Amino acid sequence: MKCFILPFQLGCGETEMETLKKLEEIEKPDTRNTHFVLINHETGEERSLTLEDFYKTVELIKLHERVPDNVRSQFNVARNLAIYTWFCYAFHQISELKAYSTLEMALRIKFDKNKVGLKQLLIEAVKSGLIKDRGFRNVKNTLKNLDSTEYVKRLPELMPRFRNKLAHGSNMLTDSAFFNLQICADFINQLFTE
């Protein structure tokens, strides 16, 4: 069964004023999540998203056992935040920021460099040959060259820019936690591949 999430009625760039949820609404989904459905391409059926859908998505995004425990622990914080976006949509960006900071932590551990910025660490990871396009699930599997770095060569420019936008104050609000968790997981997993 192939499914995908289809957004309904979400205006581009529109953000609503965040408020403190009422105590009696804490366990209810953020209403912005009700604008999405899953569509089964085989049957054409669609249904509303559930907390279980969020959990199952995040459960599949994980770091392997060769990644140091402290990195896996911090990445699990980002994963938990992604699940909690069900209740608080704005946690998407908090989850992303935590994923980026965990990626930077992993790079510092791998290269034993504490006073180098994220961009330089990403460049070093790509230049070292540890990171390849084929290690990312979002890159098409039709690559003819298995050692291609066409995609990853762009990450040292893009990832710090996205991280900085989140870290230095922004009202950006997107449902991108799951996608960015996956990219960070794929990157970190390649760093610690045997």
Characterize the structure shown:
Helix content is about 45%, strand content about 5%. The chain is mainly α and about 190 residues long. The chain has one domain (about 50-190). A three-stranded antiparallel β-sheet has the order 1-2-3, with no helix packed on it. Helix 1 runs antiparallel to helix 2 and helix 2 packs antiparallel against helix 6. The chain is globular and about 50 Å long. The two termini are about 35 Å apart.
SSE blueprint:
Elements (H helix, E strand, L loop, with lengths): L2 E5 L28 E5 L5 E3 L2 H9 L9 H16 L6 H21 L6 H10 L27 H13 L9 H15 L3
Antiparallel strand pairs: 1-2, 2-3
Helix pairs in contact: 1-2, 2-3, 2-6, 3-4, 3-5, 3-6, 4-5
Mean pLDDT, as a whole number? 87
Count the strands?
Answer: 3
Give the termini separation.
33 Å
Order of helices and strands: EEEHHHHHH
Largest pleated sheet: 3 strands, antiparallel
Oligomeric state of this protein:
single chain
Given the C-alpha coordinates, what overall shape results? globular
As residue ranges, the low-confidence spans are 1-14
Beta content comes to 5-15%
Radius of gyration: 18 Å
Give keywords.
mainly alpha
Brief write-up:
The protein has 194 residues and is mainly α.
